[in-house]
TrEMBL record:
Residues 123-218 form the OmpR/PhoB-type domain. The keyword DNA-binding applies. Keywords: DNA-binding, Phosphoprotein. Residues 2-116 form the Response regulatory domain. PROSITE patterns: OMPR_PHOB, RESPONSE_REGULATORY. Residues 123-218 bind DNA. The modification 4-aspartylphosphate is found at D51. InterPro entries: CheY-like_superfamily, OmpR/PhoB-type_DNA-bd, Sig_transdc_resp-reg_C-effctor, Sig_transdc_resp-reg_receiver, WalR-like, WH-like_DNA-bd_sf. SMART domains: REC, Trans_reg_C. It holds the Pfam family Response_reg. The keyword DNA-binding applies. This is Response regulator transcription factor.
Amino acid sequence: MRLLVVEDEEDLVEALRVGLVRAGYAVDVAADALTAHEKLQVNSYDLVLLDLNLPGGDGFQLCRAVRATGDGVRIIMVTARDRLDDRVRGLDEGADDYLVKPFAFPELLARVRALLRRDTGGTSVLEVGTLRIDTARMEVSLDGRALALTPKEYGVLHYLMTRPGYVVSSEELLEHVWDEHADPFTNTVRVTVGNLRRKLQADGLIETVISRGYRLREPA
């Protein structure tokens, strides 16, 4: 899944970026409200980590602007502002969650996972036939056999498993599994899918639909 970190503290941004990438997420960053707004207009994000005190505006305004567009992206406000009225206002402006600094990174990850689970029926375990992903532990197995996947292979498989039976284009996978530095003209999606197929060792499980994309086949 692809996340946007909106934060102007450089050390915190880097720590969040590194930790989230290690946890399997694609991460873009924005250090001010204007840059964040521009990226939200151009890219499709699954979740935003949003500070409130930003150059060029505040997180409340940005959250309100995002919600006015009808964008259903998940938003967690991450801020040092711990007053009750700030928490209430943040949730009223459209944030899905509110986390006060300083925080423990494992708690942040748990909150991210909890919000993203809303798109998968609230469960941390996805199963399609005998293919299984435990998103809390980042563990993948097929027929009870554990699979060792790279972060991008895991991301592609996770995205396909949230849409079994549906055709997902290479562009959509690139948008949600890779960050903004990915070359849209590269063959990285095709290569990653090819490597994933070899590790699955299951012919036809990930089907190529000519000129359209890829589909994870549901069991008959």
